Amino acid sequence: MILTVTPNPALDVTWHVDRLRVGDTHRADAGAVRAGGKGLNVARVAHAEGAAVRAITTAGGRTGEEFAEELGRSGVPHALVRVGQDTRRSIAIVDEALGDTTVINERGLTPSDQEWADLLAAVVDALPSARVLVISGSLPPGAPDGFVPLLIAVAKDAGLPVIVDTSGPALLRAADAGASVLKPNRAELAEATGILDPLDGARALIERGAELVLLSLGAVGMLAVTASGLVHARLDQPLSGNPTGAGDAAVAACAVLYAEGERDPEVILRRATAWSAAAVLMPLAGDISPQWPAIAARLRVSHPDSDSVRKDLS
Ligand SMILES: O=P(O)(O)OC[C@@]1(O)O[C@H](CO)[C@@H](O)[C@@H]1O
């Protein structure tokens, strides 16, 4: 079973508009509302692809009620820790003309010390039936610095690999704690490490203790960086659509393969890049197109040296 934990879930609202103009008034059909947050999207995608999953997260207030109802309807196996604060919202506005998406993420409200302890206990309870732990998404303001390292430690003690997709200082802490896989995008990597060169940034995470860094690069595809080398995968032609949740689909692919015992970075990178691109074709985060095997067949995969990667990324 793939166990996901989302410390800062969101009620996702997605609007589709013909053309987004800053400062203008727009009319849209009723927005689609989903129980979101990165770990929820990972669980949805893996569940839809037939994997056994369990999504653990918090829910509170009126938004939390709506979140819990939608999650119940989705059929994704889950456990909710009830908290006193309202679940935050995340707004995605898809510009149909540009094929681009603007996202506003509320920062989220801080759970109490007891609620953090309840969330940790829910994860610890589920660990015995898990084959991989996924920690995904931002942390709410005021989150304890030690929360992500503690989750990694308990999972590693139980013999499980841990995949982490987070941002800010938590990304560095996850590397220091020896996460098996980290999946930053270019901006998150530069912000967390303070290193502008993406290759040097990814290698800094490996030196700190991560085994594999999957660096998502948008239209340029994805890079797998390990202590022993580099693999690059990209599509022959980038796809346009809604990229929200594309990174979560990559994490889902990685989690499914890790749960099956796969550890080859190239195999993982191929599936992650294909699922990520297949997510862009779907209107809502948390879904991937059933066309993903055809997309996988269009991948160009290489084992480049550092200089040619840098040229590609400049
Ligand atoms: O604030 P975070 O946790 O970084 O991102 C939250 C979020 O934008 O990410 C998902 C898409 O990846 C959405 O479902 C979700 O609401």
TrEMBL record:
Residues 19-288 form the Carbohydrate kinase PfkB domain. This is 1-phosphofructokinase family hexose kinase. NCBIfam families: 1-PFK. The keyword Transferase applies. Belongs to the carbohydrate kinase PfkB family. Keywords: ATP-binding, Kinase, Nucleotide-binding, Transferase. Pfam families: PfkB (PF00294). Gene3D superfamilies: 3.40.1190.20. It comes from Microbacterium croceum.
